[in-house]
Specification:
By secondary structure, the chain is α+β, with helices and mostly antiparallel strands. It is about 20% helix and about 25% strand. It is globular, with a radius of gyration of 12 Å.
Length: about 90
């Protein structure tokens, strides 16, 4: 994902802008990371350079929990414990 996308992205749930970006792995583009809505605490993974900003009902809980576990050292504690739609709390 290119960093400039953050200037146009809004939360698909509550339309909040701007969103927060956490980068876990970056080359020419962001390879792995997380986009967070500070208003509703929803988080969206960036995997293989693609931001996955799906509605809650289309997200795979097991994959999302695995993502949180994989990157737990780089994810803010508030998201780990209270993030939506899934968290480790």
């Amino acid at each position: 994902m290119k960093r400039w996308l953050m200037s146009i992205l809004a939360c698909p749930i509550d339309k909040h802008h701007p969103l927060e970006l956490y980068v876990f792995e970056e080359r020419e583009e962001i390879v792995e990371g997380m986009i967070v809505c500070p208003k509703c605490l929803r988080w969206f993974p960036i995997r293989n350079e693609i931001p996955e900003m799906l509605p809650d009902e289309l997200r795979n809980k097991r994959e999302e929990i695995d993502f949180l576990i994989k990157w737990r050292d780089k994810i803010p504690e508030k998201i780990l414990l209270e993030g939506k739609p899934f968290n480790l709390g």
